[in-house]
Design a protein that fits this description.
The complex is a heterotrimer of chains A (about 325), B (about 210) and C (about 775). Chain A has about 325 residues and is an alpha+beta fold. Chain A contains 13 helices and 12 strands. The model of chain A has no long low-confidence stretch (mean pLDDT about 95). Chain B has about 210 residues and is an alpha+beta fold. In chain B, α1 packs across α2, α4 crosses α7 and α5 crosses α7. Classes of the chains: A alpha+beta (about 325), B alpha+beta (about 210), C alpha+beta (about 775). Chains B and C meet through α1, α3, α4, α5 and α6 of B and α2, α5 and α18 of C.
Chain lengths: ~325, ~210, ~775
């Protein structure tokens, strides 16, 4: 039962951006995350700008360079079942399939999944926490079992998206429309860690809209996977997750990207892992070393130390599956 | 037929199939709007028009529910769930959390199962909405409903409409699903009574019943 | 006996008239034709078509929507409530506060503790502070936001283990200890001295929330001085009694209707403050008022299963003889006395043969929402401790867990004064037949062999068994059966069908006895205005309480029909046979169709009244069960997957095989919640507030969290001593041993004891990290 807000559903992207003036205007795409935030009164709102009429923001198509373009309004379910995504960008399809519930996936959009708010229960709850303009992070000394072990800095959220790690592993780019023209931002640069600004999750400005997600061509020998460990098998966020995108040739890893979910306030690129597995055949020793390296810099809070063996075990398991592929 | 004051309270249309838009507006709609306007000074019904959805507090929407058109005056913040239940009387759609976390309010929107609680009524305009009541063929149960009866796929029955809608949505997309697909399809529908094994059996039977009909 | 919930389920010592008279009870059924079959629910059509009107579906003309303002602090004192802004809002019709009620409306938290309905002292987050009624639920919430409350925030205690510590916040003037109870039989020290092995261990189960899918709430409407309430409840008469008492109304002026209800699990045995608020608001405004809680409110203030901290010390001889059990339990039902340790030691006292038993229970206060009975109060918690301990003992003496349990099956209820015998016990049969059907011994050999393999996916099997404290049903219950001139039948009973299939089972009883088709029976139920008195549906007592009364009423109908036929056929009663459609005279060979009976046509209807007779003197009627499961543990990630489950249940006669199986699966599913996913989390360090007050942070099992393979194995043992249908209850035992069986299977798989629920990856990774790398691989 939310507060009053006005509602507009513009017919053009230009109109939509024009409607987003004022701090308390919010974009409504699928609405699954937004309406939950409004119910919990996480942030003030006076106007919803629905972009659901912007059909150009929908759909999945090949790009001229051999990559893929996914409209920001494409639903999570559409991403999860798309044959080309399943074949060439498996981790993304798997990540999408791991989101929320069937209903959420039918309604939520890929753009929205990238722009969703943290699921920290202090942030969502009746706590005036640091991220909401308060003085401190309740999780730092509180119930932090689901919080971050990497990248925490005054605020200890984990990034909730299952699709962002996969997109980052593929080196995807977001196309953003703004009143002063568009810009392209790599997924890696899209998210804002608390060390940079604790009150925002992305670089998106108030009047900007993510319109498209661009995947570069999938090189030959690319194999990818997304693994998610959770406390419940549906409608749950990652306790630990990983998107792996490995290019292998003759059983040897040529190039890799490893991005963790459930670990940090942003999708967390595990460069240490990549360094160790690159130019290896993923032998048992390399895998053990890589999994340990992923957690070398982890700083657990009072109640989430379990995540360290969990991440290590999960990485070992997933890297083994990649061996010789 | 409900009493007139009932209509006034809810701003609800009592339109029967076959009413023309003009006839409906003249007979019920204006009265409904006026009622809202007098009970709430926040309402700005007079500024609202079907073409504009930018009104501050109350707007007219046209909802296509179970193949019938309903024109209603709603606040932009009203959920489709609230409008279906408290204004259209379609209480087959249940309320369990209003946060998209339990699935009791599952309806089909353009054939896809979605949470009515996370769908604003204004967002549902122009979409094809199917509720549990819409699966009935007159007084006869639809195949999924029939299968739920036969397999005893319910206990308290409160999550059951949502489960049925999720299965209906699944079967519209995949007429012969595997057990794994069925379990996945109803994984957004919590059943605290724990009827899941019977629900999975009912979904499989429903696929057979649908194939036969 | 000391059960706090018993008063909710039963009224002791009421002398009720009986049909048939004492000593004239009908013989037990022999071979049945309807009972025991797979009968789909008689109200299934209504439930799947959307025509079943649940209380939350009720929309009355002119109805307003109410909402409760709740204290956001774990412990606070209301200093000032300013409603001036809210009062001025359009669409707001009435506001109730502590000041406006002026202490005139009281709320009995227990017999001893009575507070104001809106008490200045808020002892838990979610306590009611004010109530509003408005044109829409949205406006009602707007009004709540506009009410300004000034609180004095007080120190709190959120962890029951800290409640009695020096310096802990004091919740009540008399201190934080509600109750301390002890029990003793034999001499535990002697028992431990006789034992070959003595083990001691600590266990804990987390607090769970009932979370029925339909929220708590009601619609209240006044017609003159008569109040009608449509309430989502397990017992309309219980709601009537408490509401009438609080409002000072005669029972006859309070009508409570609850034809359908969307689950309760013990949390809906009584009305809530919302019921009283809806009634008061409706009276004040002169319009019907609907109040249904939000999910978040229900999580805070509508009941829970108390957290349990248990220490168990056990002694066993090498041959499997239990020599001593010592148990101590600490729990909290929240900020008010609410059975925080209710029945927590019962399984220790009663489940296995043991001459020397000692237990102590301590119920303390914390600043959290009051508990309510939750499906088998105390039992799943105690099973978590006792059944894991039994496995540990079995391992220590090198005995199979099944054999150890079979060695100690009691035939008498040792936990009760004088050790009365059970009428029947299927415990041995459940364990034996369950193990057989599960393939227990083969599976144990397989998992033992596999443990030596180098594989991070480890399988294990586990089991647990149980008794349920009650489950035999009791008086009072009155039902009326009417047979109309056309042979159709109407059943009138006060009991609620909370989803267990009560209406269906009662229809089957009538069908069995009168020869009519179940679907031709019309049932009036759960309405204090038009149906007969019944106690709430809970405690696994509805079928064994109501079905004998229904059978008696049917027999009363039959007897009248036979009398009519005796006159019309000219044969004495003893020569008449009732065959369903006809009554036949065995002497003359003549028969008459029941619907052709002239007296029936003239009279229009035959009315039979049935009363629930007493339970057998000096005996105990309890249901029993054993459950078995297989799990796979990923030692790298701590993920536990349940591969299969089998529930072997003895609940007397199997009434409807379809709803029986459904209950078994449902109980197992709920037990999986306790064992694997559910826990209330309070922000114990800084605010005491519940952080996981929604259905994604509080994790009920989904369809993907239960195994694909679930088997229900009924141990069908009609209990002719218990009552005239031979049925015992099923709703509780189905969830008692589940979590413990999972924990035992995990131990079998990886050798770690999950002492604290739930066995989620958080717990499992901590435990597995304590193992050596060799043990893990």
């Amino acid at each position: 039962m939310t507060v009053h807000f006005s509602y507009v559903r513009p017919a053009s992207l230009q109109d939509a951006m024009g409607q987003l003036t004022g701090d308390n205007a919010r974009i409504h795409a699928g609405g699954t995350d937004l309406l939950g935030c409004l119910r919990d009164e996480v942030f003030p709102v006076d106007k919803l700008v629905s972009i659901s009429r912007l059909d150009k923001l929908r759909g999945i198509k090949k790009t001229t360079d051999g990559g893929l373009s996914i409209g920001a309004l494409t639903t999570i379910a559409e991403v999860a079942v798309h044959p080309l995504i399943r074949e060439k960008y498996t981790a993304l399809a798997q990540g999408a399939a791991a989101v929320g519930s069937p209903q959420i996936r039918n309604q939520g959009t890929l753009g929205g999944n990238l722009c969703q708010k943290p699921r920290c229960w202090y942030y969502r709850g009746e706590f005036h926490c640091l991220r909401k303009g308060g003085d401190f992070c309740y999780a730092a000394e509180g119930e932090n079992q689901y919080h971050c072990i990497l990248g925490g800095d005054y605020c200890y959220i984990v990034h909730p998206s299952d699709t962002a790690p996969a997109l980052q592993a593929f080196g995807a780019t977001l196309r953003i429309a703004g009143p002063r023209g568009g810009r392209d931002v790599s997924v890696a640069d899209f998210f804002v860690p608390p060390s940079r600004d604790v009150t925002r999750e992305t670089v998106l400005e108030q009047e900007e809209i993510v319109t498209e997600i661009l995947l570069p061509p999938a090189p030959a020998g690319l194999r990818s996977a997304y693994r998610k460990v959770r406390a419940r098998q549906a409608w749950d966020f990652a306790l630990a997750g990983v998107a792996l995108a490995l290019e292998q040739e003759g059983g040897r890893v040529q190039k890799s990207r490893v991005v963790l979910s459930g670990a940090a306030p942003i999708p967390w690129r595990a460069v240490e892992v990549e360094k160790i597995i690159n130019d290896s055949t993923l032998g048992a020793e390399v895998i053990r070393e890589a999994a340990a390296a992923a957690m070398a810099k982890a700083v657990p809070l009072s109640k989430n130390g379990y995540k360290i063996p969990l991440f290590q075990g999960m990485l070992e398991e997933e890297l083994e599956k990649m061996r010789g592929a | 037929m409900k009493k007139k004051e009932d209509d006034e309270k809810t701003g609800q249309c009592q339109c029967e199939h076959g009413y023309t838009r003009r006839g409906f507006l003249a007979s019920v709609g204006v009265g409904a709007m006026a009622a809202i306007a007098t009970t709430s000074k926040l309402s700005s019904a007079k500024e609202a028009s079907p073409a504009e959805l930018s009104a501050e507090k109350a707007v007219v929407v046209t909802l296509l529910v179970n193949d019938r058109t309903h024109r209603l005056l709603v606040e932009p913040r009203w959920s489709l769930l609230y409008v279906l239940r408290e204004h259209l009387g379609l209480t087959g759609t249940k309320v369990g959390c209003e946060r998209g976390e339990c699935g009791a309010c599952t309806v089909l929107i353009d054939d896809l199962p979605r949470n009515a609680c996370l769908t604003l009524a204004v967002e549902a305009e122009g979409r094809r909405i199917t509720t549990l009541e819409g699966l009935m063929q007159g007084e006869e149960l639809g195949p999924v409903q029939q299968a739920f009866v036969e397999e005893d796929a319910m206990q308290c029955g409160y999550c059951t409409p949502g489960q049925i809608m999720s299965v209906e949505g699944l079967l519209r997309a995949r007429p012969q699903p595997t057990p794994a697909e069925i379990r996945q399809a109803v994984s957004g529908n919590l059943c605290r009574c724990g009827t899941y094994p019977h629900i999975v059996k009912a979904a499989a039977r429903a696929a057979d019943l649908k194939a036969k009909r | 006996m000391k059960d706090d919930e018993r008063d909710l389920y039963f009224v002791e010592g009421i002398a009720v008239p009986q049909t048939p008279l004492p000593g004239e009870e009908p013989a037990a059924w022999g071979k049945t034709t309807v009972i025991g079959q797979r009968q789909p629910r008689v109200d299934a059509y209504e439930r799947v078509s959307g025509t079943a009107v649940y209380p939350s579906d009720v929309v009355l003309p002119n109805m307003l929507y109410g909402a409760l303002l709740r204290c956001p602090h774990a412990h606070a004192r209301v200093k000032k409530v300013d409603i001036s802004a809210a009062e001025r809002m359009e669409g707001v019709h009435a506001i109730l506060t502590g000041a406006s009620l002026a202490g005139k409306v009281k709320w009995p938290y227990s017999e001893e503790v009575v507070t104001d309905l809106f008490d200045a002292q808020c002892r838990f987050e979610g306590e009611a502070v004010a109530a509003v009624a408005a044109t829409t639920p949205y406006v009602a919430r707007d009004a709540l936001r506009a009410i300004a409350v000034e609180y004095e925030v007080l120190p709190f205690v959120a962890d029951e283990r800290e409640s009695l510590a020096p310096g802990a916040a004091q919740i009540h003037a008399g201190g934080n200890r509600f109750k301390a109870e002890t029990y003793e039989r034999g001499d535990v020290n002697k028992g431990f001295a006789e034992a070959d092995v003595v083990l001691e261990e600590k266990y804990r189960t987390a607090c769970e929330i009932q979370s029925p899918m339909e929220l708590h709430g009601c619609v209240a409407n006044w017609e003159g001085d008569s109040l009608t309430i449509w309430e989502s409840t397990q017992g309309v008469y219980a709601v009537q009694a408490k509401t009438a008492d609080i409002l000072g109304l005669p029972l006859s002026k309070v009508r409570v209707i609850g034809h359908y209800m969307g689950g309760g699990f013990g949390a809906k045995l009584q009305p809530g403050k919302y019921t009283i608020c809806a009634a008061l608001l409706a009276r004040k405004i002169g319009r019907p008022v609907k109040i249904f809680l939000s999910r978040e409110e229900a999580m805070l203030a509508a009941g829970n299963r108390p957290p349990a901290n248990m220490t168990i010390k056990a002694g066993v001889k090498k041959d499997g003889t239990l020599t001593a059990l010592q148990f101590s339990g600490l729990g909290s039902g929240g900020a008010y006395p609410a059975g925080g340790t209710s029945l927590l030691d019962w399984l220790v006292r009663d489940l296995y043969v043991c001459p020397n038993v000692q237990s102590e229970l301590t119920d303390v206060a914390i600043n959290a929402g009051p508990a309510r009975p939750f499906r088998a109060p105390g039992h799943p918690q105690c099973a978590w401790a006792l059944e894991q301990m039994m496995d540990a003992l079995a391992e220590a003496i090198g005995m199979d867990p099944v054999d150890l349990r079979l060695k100690n099956v009691p035939l008498v209820s040792q936990g009760r004064e004088g050790s009365p015998p059970y009428t029947t016990t299927g415990l041995s049969a459940c364990i034996t037949e369950g193990a057989e059907a599960f393939g227990w011994r083969e599976a144990r050999r397989r998992t033992a062999a596999a443990r030596k393999e180098k594989n991070h996916l480890k399988r294990g099997v586990g089991m647990g068994s149980c008794v349920w404290f009650v489950g035999g049903g009791r008086p009072p219950s009155t039902v009326i059966v009417k047979l109309f001139a056309d042979g159709s039948v109407n059943l009138n009973m006060g009991a609620s069908d909370i989803g267990t299939g009560t209406k269906t089972v009662m229809s089957m009883v009538l069908a069995e006895e009168l020869g009519v088709r179940p679907e031709t029976i019309q049932i009036e139920h759960a309405d204090t205005g038009s149906t007969q008195y019944a106690t709430p549906s809970g405690g696994s007592k509805t079928v064994p309480t109501e079905s004998p009364a229904v059978r008696s009423a049917a027999i009363a109908v039959k007897q009248q029909l036979l009398k009519m036929a005796a006159g019309e056929l000219g044969s004495p009663l003893e020569n008449l046979r009732y065959t369903g459609e006809y009554i036949e005279a065995t002497d003359s060979g003549k028969k008459v169709k029941i619907t052709d009976l002239a007296s029936l046509k003239k009279q229009g209807v035959v009315v039979g009244i049935g009363y629930r007779g007493p339970n057998p003197e000096g005996k105990v009627v309890n249901p029993f069960a054993a459950q078995f499961c297989e799990v796979e543990v990923n030692t790298r990630t701590g993920e536990v997957r349940i591969l299969r489950f089998l529930g072997a249940h003895e609940s007397g006669r199997v009434m409807d095989r379809l709803t029986f199986d459904n209950q078994v699966f449902g109980g197992i599913t709920m037990g999986i919640g306790l064992g694997m996913t559910e826990k209330r989390i309070l922000d114990a360090n800084s605010t005491g507030k519940m952080v996981n007050r929604n259905l994604h942070d509080y994790k009920l099992p989904t369809a993907l969290d239960v195994p694909e393979e679930m088997v229900s194995l009924p141990v069908d043992m009609p209990d002719s001593e218990a009552n005239n249908t031979g049925a015992k209850g099923l709703g509780e035992p189905v969830t008692i041993p589940t979590a413990a069986a999972i924990a035992n299977a995990i131990y079998d798989a990886v050798g770690v004891r999950v002492r604290q629920s739930p066995a989620d990856p958080l717990t499992m990774n901590r435990l597995l990290a304590e193992q050596s790398p060799e043990e893990r691989s």
